[in-house]
């Protein structure tokens, strides 16, 4: 039998005698592999953006406007627009003229909400109004009544009619473009498949009247002529009618559901950031676990060397053992990755990070990537862990097995110094960056700091015990004496536990408090650019012109302005924001009563903010060398390129600046075409809120609040970004917690002989457990302190970039993290101690172990 086969047979046969250590490695690799595969699935979902069409399912092809903004400095990269890109009506005729097109059906969508007792249902879908001619795109067939042939008639989808108890011939109240109107139900239609969003189909005349973007259509559904292949026809349409997006298959859903394209960046961010974090955390955790198991076998490996095994054979045996466990864990991790991927994605949908219509995609590529990365990390960890054991001389290895040294080698010390320097460099660099991009630079400081702790772990434990050992003895009593000695002697083993605790603390506190600090600054900056005594918010799609006029005429109102929000770019000269466009605010021109803008004007005047004009942040104008009176080209949220004149420069915050346009101009380039909020100023804020509340009773879905509602609206959009970081923190903490319990259990269970000897010397089980609790407390406190310090290298620079000294965030998060660490360490210690002392003391002393 060859030496390779002998080593393999020895490796496999030894696994059953090391069940606890093998199980620890298996769990660490299994969890890491599952998370990596889940991240790969999220990334694939972001790239594919699979969203099966519903209302457009009957049309084999869907033609929409431009897919996104092609960045001038990176023409291969396309950033999705924030709004729906519409098509001019004349494009419908051009599409119909393409050979092979059987029928081209235009579709428009406008804000329509069913009213119950004068108010819309909470969370009701808004863009639900369409022309009857587009009913064929979803295969809608009348089950009652007739088509809406005259103005004032409407056809309801069967699900909506059934839920509301409505039938053909009934009267119904709808809020169309924010205005309450009564219609007669001419019929009820059933779609060809399940459609979750309600649909209200109006006559052609009404659809044209309600279209918020006259002269345009939202999209065009195309039915190929008989015998024409849809894919071939899509190519022809793209060639003959350029600058349009032609979609087939499940890609059609991105045209139907506006939010699908906008979810790409959050998903990529979630997958990339968390995937990178998992890679680093997994490498640290798996390395610590495998190193601990190898260290505990030092005496066994030394005996193999003493009986004639070569260093190469010992090294190969350890690697083979680990890879056997790793391969099994990776296979099982594929099943776990599928479950975790679906859970993370569904959680992201419930939190509003991604739209419900987007489907989770996870194929063989995602599984292969996760498994390959897992096996590579496992092999690297096993190779390095076995290297020191195989190179050690037998006598030296036996001595190290008895009293493991806490001193790390020069390579690890140099690596720790490099990681420490990188942490300081990242933190200091963050201070000088804009707050909106500082998190991307400061975040990696958490990982570099944790890596440095992992490399110096044994020496850190030894230093803590030497420095604070006397204090621990005074506080914890006589049981602490042996605990301090054990912690010092077993610094290498406890360092493996220290690493995941430090990681969990640093990631949790760093991610959460960085985000809460940045979020507070962001909301304060955006809301601080506006001023209002009362804020009206519509849940019915927006405010109609009639409502805007009545708001202006309310007694006590001196200034009122619709507020429109979107995002866009300065295209010429290009602002270079790329995938992170600037926020656009649309407000009414300044009048004699004042303005709702609170930002100081440094040059120019807001009275000229009319027509095709813009007020730019002074910092943006300076960077692009734009002066008042200059003509620039902007790319707005629906993809329209609009030439505008700069009429004013604003002293906006540099980190969260907004470009201000006339509300009418910006609203015309949003999906709904309406303002969803109105800001009001006057003399007595309380009186204005009361007067407007009385009038708002007749306006469907309109609520009136004070100026705090302004910050709340910005907070809602910021919360989506924050939820990504919270989800990352929870998942990373969960994995680190599993690793900490895993490693701690192995370290305790390996000490059966020690516990047996202590009990034979007169100690009872309670004293042994109290000793272990003190040991766990030392490691937990050390990990907490290190994690807090590491998190400060991210949190404090983030606070400084926002102009604050003290970070913002709830105190309960800090207390919860501290409590969670002790709930991880002490229960795991108690359970492991109970298992380790199941046998009587004499049997325990006879068992193999340390």
UniProtKB/TrEMBL annotation:
Identify a single GO molecular function assigned to this protein.
transmembrane transporter activity
Q: Which residues cross the membrane?
A: 267-294, 322-344, 364-389, 410-433, 445-465, 491-513, 723-750, 771-800, 812-837
Q: Membrane topology for this entry?
A: Multi-pass membrane protein
**Subcellular localization, as worded in the UniProt entry:** Cell membrane
Give the record's GO CC terms. plasma membrane
Q: Which residues form the ABC3 transporter permease C-terminal domain?
A: 273-392, 727-840
Provide the alphabetized UniProt keywords: Cell membrane, Membrane, Transmembrane, Transmembrane helix
Recorded family membership: Belongs to the ABC-4 integral membrane protein family.
Report what the protein is called: ABC transporter permease
> From what organism does this protein derive?
Amycolatopsis rubida
Starting at the broadest rank, the lineage of the source organism is: Bacteria, Bacillati, Actinomycetota, Actinomycetes, Pseudonocardiales
